[in-house]
Design a protein that fits this description.
It is built from 14 helices and six strands. By secondary structure, the chain is of the alpha/beta class. Strands 4-3-5-6 form a four-stranded parallel sheet, sandwiched between helices. A two-stranded antiparallel sheet has the order 1-2. Helix 11 crosses helix 12 (216-225). The chain binds adenosine-3'-5'-diphosphate (A3P). This is Sulfotransferase.
Length: 292
């Protein structure tokens, strides 16, 4: 099916497209369960990677058939996504039969359905340094037909700096969730760079946050299975059957590196970005690494 590229518009102060606002009432009224696990991210910060780690931690041993039969985006539904002729993200989440339900969202913290807070659900927020994040987002928008036209790199970077991206400003997103973490203890705030640096350590941290007593052997196995090359070769995790993605333009699992921004930013773009970054991040204790 053809998916026309949508327009971006302001929605309660955040740039979005209709694919994420069409089902708004149902998203806002979504009934969470106390054992739901939410994977929250700004787009392109490692959502699929973290979703897959969580799915393996919870279900590989009890439901091994999932591994070869259900693509990751079906195991972990995208809460606010609403596409014509398809069940909405809330419907998909509502009909999950496994427990806990693992649910993906890109919503900024102020838009999270209140039921998740009321039920004190565990939330894994994964984030990524702004420079690699925008590069990854640019290549994604080139291949994802349900995203607005990306334009060229320099105009995309300009829009990113202005927060005119689907799901709004990266700065507001990462800082909003960071602030929430200071008062809501069930958020595990993690970094893409840490995952690249030491996946095994991050899996252990996740287990400890989630209260899982996964064996060392199983954790080692998961570490191998979530390696970039393995996920890229795995039809259940490389999104190759997603018909809105144009794989002739780019790859979903594209590079998976820290520091690819250096291949995209000009010296001037980098200096201007650093200047803006300093201003935008001056009131937060949140720190990122742009290389490891
Ligand atoms: P790049 O475009 O820089 O390669 P999301 O799932 O939030 O859309 O994020 C996608 C980004 O995460 C892509 O970044 C993708 O390659 C990267 N990624 C996904 N799985 C990965 C893995 N196992 N190891 C490293 N990077 C991974």
């Amino acid at each position: 099916m053809d998916h026309p590229r949508p327009e971006l518009f302001e929605f309660h102060g955040v740039s979005l497209t209709h694919y994420f606002t069409d089902n708004w009432e149902n998203v806002q009224n979504f009934k969470a369960r106390p054992d739901d696990i939410v994977v929250a991210t700004y787009p392109k910060a490692g959502t699929t990677w973290v979703s897959y780690i969580l799915d393996l931690l919870y279900f590989r041993q009890t439901h091994p058939e999932r591994e070869t039969t259900i693509p990751i985006y079906k195991r972990v539904p995208f809460l606010e996504l609403s596409m014509p002729l398809e069940p909405s993200g809330t419907d998909k989440a509502g009909t999950l039969t496994t427990s806990p339900r693992i649910i993906k969202t890109h919503l900024p913290v102020q838009f999270i359905p209140k039921s998740f807070w009321e039920q004190n659900c565990k939330i894994v927020y994964c984030t990524r340094n702004a420079k690699d994040n925008v590069v990854s987002y640019f290549h994604f928008d080139r291949m994802e037909n349900i995203q607005p036209e990306p334009g060229d790199w320099s105009s995309f970077l300009k829009r990113f700096k202005e927060g005119k991206m689907v799901f709004g400003s990266w700065f507001d997103h990462v800082c909003g969730w960071w602030e929430k973490k200071q008062t809501y203890s069930n958020i595990h705030y993690m970094f893409f760079e840490d995952l690249v640096e030491d996946t095994g350590r991050e899996i252990k941290r996740l287990c400890s946050f989630l209260g899982l007593s996964t064996s060392e052997e199983e954790k080692e196995k998961i570490k191998g299975d979530v390696h970039f090359d393995v996920m890229k070769a795995n039809r259940m995790t490389n999104l190759s059957d997603d018909d809105t993605l144009d794989f002739s333009v780019s790859q979903f699992l594209r590079k998976g590196k820290v520091g690819d921004w250096k291949n995209h930013f000009t010296v001037a773009q980098n200096e201007q970005f650093d200047e803006l970054y300093k201003q935008k991040m001056k009131n937060t204790s949140l720190q990122f690494r742009t290389e490891i």
